[in-house]
Amino acid sequence: MKAKYICPILTSMNADETVNYDQMHAFYDQLIEAGIDGVLAGGSAGEFYAFSYDEIKEFILDAIEYGKGRWEVIAGTGRMVKAETIQLSNEVLKAGADAVIIVGPYYSACNGDDVFAYFDEVLSAIDGPVYIYNYGDRTGFDIPAETLLALREKHDNLVGVKDTHPVLRHTQRYIQFLKPKYPDFKIYTGYDNNCIPSVISGGDGCIGAQSNVDPEMCANVIKALAAEDLSALKELQRKIDAYFAFYEVHVPFNPVMKWALKELGAPMQENCRVPIKPLTDAQKEKLAPVADALWRNKK
Fold first, then answer.
1. Mean pLDDT throughout 222-227?
2. Which CATH class, in words, describes the domain spanning 4-229?
3. Angle at Cα 247 formed by Cα 199 and Cα 189, nearest 5°?
4. CA–CA dist 49, 104 (Å, integer)
5. What would the DSSP string read from start to end of the chain?
C-alpha cells in the first residue's frame, strides 16, 4: 500500500514573534532526514491565521527556496479574502510550490451552495494543483463528499483533499466517492490516528502534526504500510494512539509540541503568535506526567 506522510510544520518564532529561519531550515532537514515525504508550510500547526499576507508569503517562499525540489512542499494559501487566496496561490505556485492547500472561509456561516461557489471560483482562478482543506471544527462547515466530487468533476487542478475530521467514516466516504472515478485524487487524513486505517481503506496517507514530534515513527508507518507488515502496523497504531494526548491535554496543541521539541533538543522555540501563548511554568508542572510519558523517556 503506497502512502505519504506530510508534516504540517510548526513555526519556530523568536520572542518578538518573527520567524527564526535558521531554525526552520534545520527543522526541515531533521524531518526529511527522518523519512518524512514533504512539508505543508503555512498550515494550522504553523499558525498561518496569525500571519499577515506578506509574512506568510515570505514564509512559504523560504520553504520553497530551501527545499529546492528536494522534497514536496505544499503551501497553505487560504485567506479570508478570496482575492488574496487566489493571488497568494498563484505567486507561490509560480515560485515552485508543488501544490497549494486552501481552507475555506472560517467566520461566515456557509451553506452547501456557498461552499461550492467559493471553491468553484477559487479553483477557476488558480494556475496549478490545489488541495482542499476540510476542517469543519474551525471553518464551521463540512464539505460533503458529493460536493467534493462535483468540484473535481469541474476542475482538473483539484488534485486532493486533507480531511481533518475525527470520524474515519467521513474520510472513507471521500475515498468511496472520488477514487472509483479519479484514482489519482489524493485523500489525506488530518488525524494521525486515522492514517493507517484510512490507507487500508484506499486513502493516500496523512498530513498530521505528530510528524513534528516523532517524524521517524511516522516514516515507519509509511514503510510498514508499503510492506503490509501487520505486526509493525499494530505496534505503530498503538504508539500513535498514545501520542494523541498531544492534542488533548492542552488546547491548542501547538505549545505542547513546541515544549516537547525544545526539551528534545530540536531547533524550535516555544514562542507562539497571539492569541496562542507558550505554556507557563505552572502549566508545565501540571503536565509533567504527560511529558514523562510522551517524550522525556526518549531523551
1. 98
2. alpha beta
3. 20
4. 12
5. ---EEEEE----B-TTS-B-HHHHHHHHHHHHHTT--EEEETSTTTTGGGS-HHHHHHHHHHHHHHHTTSSEEEEE---SSHHHHHHHHHHHHHHT-SEEEEE--SSS---HHHHHHHHHHHHHH--S-EEEEE-HHHHS----HHHHHHHHHH-TTEEEEEE--S-HHHHHHHHHHHTTT-TT-EEEESSGGGHHHHHHTT--EEE-THHHH-HHHHHHHHHHHHHT-HHHHHHHHHHHHHHTHHHHSSSSSHHHHHHHHHHTT-S------TT--PPPHHHHHHTHHHHHHHTGGG-
Cell numbers representing residue 244 in the block: 494523541
pLDDT in tens, 242-269: 999 999 999 999 999 999 999 999 999 9
- The set of cell numbers assigned to 247 is 492534542
Give pTM, 2 decimals: 0.95
pLDDT digits (tens, 9 = 90+) for 104-116: 888 777 787 889 9
**Cα 18 to the chain's mean position, in Å?**
21
**Can you say how many angstroms the Cα of residue 272 is from the centroid of all Cα atoms in its chain?**
17
Q: Which residues 6+ apart lie within 8 Å of 234 measured at CB? A: none
Contacts of residue 95, defined as CB under 8 A and 6 or more positions apart, other chains included, come to: 61, 64, 65
Cell digits of residue 149: 466530487
CA distance 279 to 286: 10
Residue of 216, 175, 168 whose CA lies nearest to 190? 168
